[in-house]
């Protein structure tokens, strides 16, 4: 399995773009070590903005819930301290990364993670031909269970972590990899699906 820790991240937000003023409402970060989740940081976030009604309908996160939560100035330093210099992963990672960077800038902070792995891109490359690569669809196809409601940060991060472990197990079994460096997953992200098998076979030979 992975030879270095990977932190799976998921944000719930007020919308799609921090450039449009959208903010995070909930965060979950799960550290994967030795093939299992060993630590987690989970918190609602008082983001100081109004929660749109459609977001409450989608996530169940209400204005009252975030009003009672720790402020972003408290959550972000704790989150970055939790992530540290480990590799970071998320499903549709570019979305979570832009919010992480935007919220960090607001607090005068700088993320220190080493590398970024997108489990959505990995799924497209490792499991080509799936009907959908949305998290819920992948979970259903791969028989990964949601332990609580989707569109909450911890539930989505938990399923994303199990998806990443499923991908790792698949690559290990198919290509004879005893351990997988997060850097290898980053490299797979950058390949086209058609090139992944040959890329990994060459890497195995090199190892």
Descriptive overview:
With 207 residues, the protein is α/β, with parallel strands linked by helices. The protein has a single domain, classed as Ribonuclease H-like superfamily/Ribonuclease H (Nucleotidyltransferase, domain 5), CATH 3.30.420.10. Helices cover 46% and strands 16% of the residues. It has helices at 53-59, 63-67, 72-83, 93-106, 119-126, 135-141, 153-175, 182-189, 196-206, and strands at residues 6-13, 24-33, 36-44, 87-90, 116-118. It has a five-stranded mixed beta sheet with strand order 3-2-1-4-5, sandwiched between helices. The chain starts with 5 loop residues before the first strand and ends with a helix. The mean pLDDT is 94.
Outline of the structure:
The chain is of the alpha/beta class and 207 residues long. The protein has helices at residues 53-59, 63-67, 72-83, 93-106, 119-126, 135-141, 153-175, 182-189, 196-206; strands at 6-13, 24-33, 36-44, 87-90, 116-118.
Q: Which key phrases capture this entry?
A:
five-stranded mixed sheet; 46% helix; alpha/beta; 207 residues; Nucleotidyltransferase, domain 5; 16% strand
Distance between the termini: 15 Å
The CATH class designation is Alpha Beta
So how many helices? 9
Q: Percentage of helical residues? A: 40-55%
Mean pLDDT: 94
| CA-based gyration radius | 17 Å
Q: Which architecture would the CATH scheme give at its second level? A: 2-Layer Sandwich
Task: Note the overall shape.
Answer: globular
Number of domains: 1
CATH homologous superfamily name?
Ribonuclease H-like superfamily/Ribonuclease H
* Major sheet summary line: 5 strands, mixed
| Total count of strands | 5
Q: How much β-strand is present in the residues?
A: 15-25%
Order of helix and strand elements from N to C terminus: EEEHHHEHEHHHHH
Main sheet strand line-up: 3-2-1-4-5
CATH topology: Nucleotidyltransferase, domain 5
């Amino acid at each position: 399995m992975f030879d270095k820790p990977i932190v799976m991240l998921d944000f719930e937000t007020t919308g799609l773009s921090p450039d449009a003023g959208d903010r995070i409402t909930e965060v979950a970060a799960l550290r994967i070590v030795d093939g299992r989740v060993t630590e987690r940081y989970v918190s609602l976030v008082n983001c100081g903005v109004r929660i749109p009604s459609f977001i409450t309908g989608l996530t169940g996160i209400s204005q009252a819930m975030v009003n009672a939560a720790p402020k972003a100035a408290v959550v972000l330093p704790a989150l970055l301290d939790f992530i540290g210099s480990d590799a970071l992963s998320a499903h549709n990672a570019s979305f979570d990364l832009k919010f992480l960077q935007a919220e960090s800038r607001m607090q005068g902070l700088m993320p220190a993670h080493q590398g970024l792995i997108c489990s959505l891109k990995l799924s497209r490359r490792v499991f080509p031909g799936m009907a959908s690569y949305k998290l819920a669809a992948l979970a259903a196809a791969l028989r990964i269970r949601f332990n609580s409601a989707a569109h909450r940060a911890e539930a989505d991060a938990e399923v994303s972590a199990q998806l990443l472990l499923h991908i790792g197990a698949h690559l290990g079994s198919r290509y004879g990899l005893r351990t997988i460096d997060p850097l290898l997953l980053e490299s797979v992200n950058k390949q086209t699906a058609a090139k992944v098998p040959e890329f990994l076979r060459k890497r195995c030979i090199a190892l």
